[in-house]
Structure formats: structure tokens, C-alpha cells
Design goal:
By secondary structure, the protein is of the alpha/beta class. The chain has 18 helices and 20 strands. The chain has a domain of 147 residues.
Amino acid sequence: MNQTVPAGASPVLEKQSTLRVLRSSLREKTKEWKEGARGDGFIIMQIDGLPHQILMKAVSEGHMPYLQSLLASGHFNVSRYRCGIPGNTPATQSGIMYGENGEIPAFRWLRKKDDTLISFKNPLSARMMEKRISKDRQGILHGGSSYVNLISGGATRSVFTLSTFLTQDMQKRLSGLAIFLLIFLNIVPLLRTLASSVLELSRELFEYLEIRLKGRTQKSEGFFPIVRIFSNVLFFEVATMGALIDINRGKRAIYLTYNGYDEAAHQRGPETKYALKALRVIDKGIRKVVNRTLKKKRGMRYDVFVLSDHGQHPSIPFRYQYGESLENFIYSKVEEGRITQYGGGEHVKDYLMLALSSTLQGFADQNLFFMRRMFKNLARYIERNIGQEERKTSKESISILNSSPMSNIYFNFSPDRVDLEEIERVYPGLVGALVRHEGIGLIVCSSNGEPLILSRQGRVFYRNGAKTVDGEDPLKPFEDAEYIEQEILTQMAMPEAGDLVLYGAYSDSRVINFEEQMGGHGGIGGMQNTPFILYPSGVRFPFRDVKNARELYHVFARYTGNPGGDPPAP
């Protein structure tokens, strides 16, 4: 029976058709997810430095609409986990990729036995540490790809990965350069890259002026506008496009890092609207990668994981708060001797320059006639003029190596770790002055060969395995006191930890940072040590119970056939 629809009325048939289309689309999408539920390979997308708490804030406020849709689909779950102390990228990536991070006490530290600075701004340090960590262990990226990481995980394709900058042969370098060619020789990605670069620069100028006009505290700009462009545009494009190519080729293991949020959080603060804006860009990259896995009908099927390596907590630089650096404060308390202090700079700037230097060196090694000398000279110039403080060894009496809200202090009158009693003998009153300073929350050291925790409130002794508290327990104010206690004692047991390990004073609103950063991590308290992991609902693993990132190694090792990896339950 035919039914006449009056003019201007909404056709019932059209509504029904629309509903059918939506239902059909939903059924098809569900089928796609089910087909991909048991992956043969995995993709890890790391959002550098994003705490679980701020992830949930970003999702609820609409900064990450695609990630929100993944959670709403019911095919993904999200959990916080604890990355361990120190909460930093090298420790977490080493733990995830090799199941071992027990030799990384900080982002930078001193090897006293041969007076060598180890820093994860230096590719030689990163390469050396990866070789030590990977001994008798297979990385989870064996046969896979690494993009914009500090550790390669055994990847055969490694692009913008610090530990492989200076060791790759020319063929592997050109493999990475091929991604640049795809960007710069294709009009659409080229125009997108140029437009995004201009947009990021405009946003940076606007944000800087807005903060200045409101009279708020912010760190100096320095090289950050360029760092922002590379983090949010070039590195983003390279990592995303590399992953898309690998998905088409069926690479079993892919690990990429988006570092735009971490850079913005260090610069402006992890909870600020400026840092949250960086997550919108990252959300688009995640959408591209996940959609490509869903459209892939044949070959490798992927389990997709989105995680962060550590969190961040709002911070105020020690120098801003107290009018002098930690180095100057210590210098004022010792009668003689020289002190050197190592802190941060623009990590991405050095990252970029080192990549350029290694590429030029690779071209020079190809015997390109008269151009060989030019390439070599350019590479040497770059190496001489970047990150010098990260390469020289210490010849001073006291070495201070800052890693955000944590500092390792070494006393160089002995090649071995020195006890509190020895420090007091050579520098009487110094430790007491540090303990009394309101910017220093905890000091961990050894006394007569046993661990000792000091604070203004009290002291904790560990003698023959027994814990004794003198005064108030310094760890009592922390929410996860037992966990923090165990982690810092484990850190102090590392052979190359400082003679004194200082942690910046913590409150709910901020932590004191020994570097010039408005957001910090690597110390204790707040959101520093609670990153997140988003994972397929078919993966059964107690992520919330994880106490150190190395426990995640078992989740991923089984994909590459490593018997050391326990498979997630189906």
C-alpha cells in the first residue's frame, strides 16, 4: 500500500533508512574490532609524560575525541600503572623493551670509577646503556621499528632513536630519510607540514604573550618555538607516517613516541591549557594509525596500545623560588673546592642536531669526492657546538647532576660511594644545611654502609634489615609511602646512584625542580609516577598492580616469540 507524504514533512522511510545505515555501520565496526581482537603483532604509541589523571581530564573535556571514542566503543580499557622511580623515559623504555632498568638511577649520572658522565641526551651514553641492558635479552622490537625513542629495543628500522644515531650504517639512515622524501616530495603532506609549522609558531607566540600580559611565571623561551615545531609537526609526521608504512608492510612490532605534550608540559606546566592543546594533535595521529589497522583486511593483525612512560607534576624551579641555583647554594656552604652542575637544555634541539650530524657523517663515509670534507666539517661543527655539558667529564670536587626534581650529588675525593660520615668529615655542615633547606624534601644517602633517609621532619635508619624512625617518618605525607620507600631504596642500591640523592620538596600544588622547568618528573610525589596504558579489552593483565615499567615487558615479548614473555590471557 502506497503512502503519500505531505509536502514539508519528514519522510518516515528516510528516517528508517538512516537508522538502518547507522546500525549496519555499527555492526561492521564491531565486526572489524572482533576480527582484530587477537593480534599477531602490536603497535605502541607513547604519549611522552602524560599522567593518568590528566589523560582522564583531557578525555572528559574533549581534547582527545578519538581516544574518547575508543574507550566508549568498549573494545579498549584504560588503567593507571606505576612506572617506578626514577620516572623518566630511559628507565621506562628500557623496562618495557628489555624487562630491565636496574642500572638507570636518573636521566643523567656520574660513573665515578672512570669519571664519566652518562646522559640520555648523548647517543653514545644511550647506546652504551642499551648494550648493557640488552645483554642476554631480546628486545620486544626485534625485527620491528622504532620511531622517536631513546632506546631501540632491537628494532631493525630505527628513525630518530637516540641509541642508534651514531651506529647505523648508511642503508639504515637512508631508510629513515625515505620517510622525509615521502613528506617533502608529496604535495599534500608537504603543504600540511608547512601549514602546521606556521600554525604552531603562531600559537607559541600568542601563548607566550598571553602569559606575559597576565604576569604569570614562565621559563625563558630559548629554542622552544623551534622545538615545538619539530615535536608537534616534523617528529609527529615522521612517526605517524613510518607506522602507517610499517602496517602496510606487516611489521610485527612498532613503537613510536609523540613528545609534544611532554615538551609543552615542561615549558608551561602539565595541567595548563597550553599543554592540553598538544594532545589534540597527538589524538589525530592515534586516529590515523588505528584506522589503518582497521582497514587492513589481510596479513598482520595488530593489538594497539597507547601508553605514557611517566607522569608530570607542576613544578617551580629552585632558582626561581630561592633566587639561586642548587650549585650556588652548595658552593656557599663549602670552604673550598670547585663545583660543577649539569642540568637540562632543549632535549629536542639536541636530538635534532645529533640526527643531522650523524646523517652528514654517513654521507661523508660514502666518499662523495670533494663533498666528503664539507660533510665531515659540518658534522664536527655540530658536535662541538651542542650539548657540550653532556659530554665532558667532571674534574671538580663536587658534581651535581640534576634530573628535574631529583639531583644526584657526587663527592669526587673517592672513586667509590662515600658515606655520610665521610662527607661530614670533608665538608662539615653541608648535609645539615641541605636538610634544613625548605626546597629539599628528602635526602637519601648511606651511613656506615646502610641506607639513611633524611628530612627536616625526621630520619629513617635501616640497620641489619630493621627500620628505625627518629622523629617523624619523612615518607608519611606521601599517599603511596610504602611503594615510594621501596623504590627509592632500590634506586639508592644502584651502583652509580649519587653519594647524596636529593628530591625536591613536594606539595599537592607543585614540586621544587632543580632544572628550569614548569613541569617535572623523575622525583617523588603527585602525578610523576602514575602514567597510563590504554589496551585492547581482550588483553588480560593486571596493569593497575604494576609497580615498575619492567613488568610490562611480559605483555609484549610474547608477540615476537620470546619465551621470556608471558602472553596476556585470551
